[in-house]
What does this fold into?
Amino acid sequence: MLAEFFIAFFLLGLVAGLTVGLAGIGSTLLILPTLVLLFPHYMPSDLSIKMAVATTLACTSVSVSYAAVIHIKKGNVDFSLCLRMAGIYALTAVIGAYTVHFLPAKTIEIMLGIVLILVGAKTALMKQPYAATEKNLNTKSFIVVTAFAGLSNSICGIGTGNIAIPYLSRYFSIKKSTGTSIVSTVVACVFGTIAYIYYGWDLSALPKYSLGYVYVPLFIVISIGMVIGTPIGYKLSERINPKWIKRLLAMLVSVAGVFALIKGILLTGT
It folds into this structure.
C-alpha cells in the first residue's frame, strides 16, 4: 500500500514536469491542488493546508531551478531586474511563511480557495502574450506587483510567474519576462521553503519524516518525477498543442479552489 502511495506521487511529479515542459505552466497548478485535496486524509486539517503549501514550494524549487538553468543558457534573463525581484521575493517569502504559521487553517483555506479559483479562471482565459517594446518600468507598480506575487507564492503556494510574467511582458519581450521571472522565482521558493522549515521545526504534531512543514518523502518522490518529466515535456512541446492541457489544468485548479473555499467556510461555521 505504501509503495503504491509513493508511486502515485512519483507519477504526479512526472506529469507536473511534463506539464512544465510542454505547456510552460508552473508545477504548482498541478501539485498544490492535489496536496490540498489529499493531505487532510492523512493529517489534522489545521496542519494539512500549511504542509501542502510548504511541500509544494519545496517541489517547485526543483522545477524552477531546472528551468532557470535553461533560460540562463539561452540568454533570456535580465540580471539587474532579476536581483531587484529576488530581493523583494526573499523578504515576502519570510513574511508569508511567518503569517501562515500563525493563521488558523480556516483563514488559509478561504484565502487559498479564492486564489485558486482566480488563477484557474485566468489560466483558462489566458491569451498569447504580445511582444512588448522594451521601456522603463514604473517603479511603484513594479514594487507592488512583485510584492503581491511574492506573498501569493509564500502564503498560497501559487507560483510568482502567474502574476509577474503578464506584468513584465508589458515592458519586455515574453522570453526575457519569462526567463527573468523564473530565475527570481528560485529565490522566492527556496527562501519560502527554508522559512516553512524554520517556523514548523518544533511542532510536535508533524508527521514522521517531516522537516518543519515540508513532508520530505513526498518532496523527494515528486521531485524525482519532475526532474525526469520536465525535459521530456520540452521535447514534446514541439509536436503537441498545449492549449487543451492548460484548460484541463484550469478546471482542476478551479475545482480544488472551490473545495478549499467551501471547507474554509464550513470550518468558520464550526
